[in-house]
Amino acid sequence: MAKIHPQLEQLLQTNEAKPMSVLLVMKEDSEVSSLGLQSYKTLTPNVISAILSPQEIRELSKKPEILAIEEDSEVEIL
Predict the structure, then answer these.
(1) CA angle in degrees (0–180, nearest 5) for 20-23-24
(2) Which fold does the domain 6-71 belong to in CATH?
(3) Domain extents for the chain?
(4) CA–CA distance from 24 to each of 13, 14, 78 (Å)?
């Protein structure tokens, strides 16, 4: 199973330079410090939000601590 969500993968293919806001879903008991991020926001113990370049997103997808990477977007309630 691919770690990068298909919708985010499409965005990465069309945009190779612009930083993107993403959600990183980590394995339980993983340490955020192991990811080497400069800036991030912890949303839950296993989910963090960060603004990353496409290259950083692809590199993080190779790390065993990462379960999934998705685009961070606003959700509206009807």
Answers:
(1) 115
(2) Alpha-Beta Plaits (3.30.70)
(3) 6-71
(4) 19, 21, 26
> Does residue 16 register a pLDDT over 90?
no
Report the b/e string of 52-64 with b at 16+ CB within 10 A: bebebbeebbeee
User: In this prediction, what percent of the chain has a pLDDT beyond 70?
Assistant: 99
Cα atoms found within 13 Å of the Cα of residue 26, Cβ hemisphere only: 20
Q: If you search the block for the tokens 């997103």, which residue do you land on?
A: 57
Query: Which DSSP state fits 8?
Result: H
Task: Categorize the per-residue pLDDT at 15 as very low, low, confident or very high, splitting at 50, 70 and 90.
Answer: confident
Q: pTM of the full predicted structure?
A: 0.88
- Determine the distance from the C-alpha atom of residue 56 to the mean position of all C-alpha atoms in its chain, rounded to a whole number: 9
Q: Is the pLDDT of residue 75 over 80?
A: no
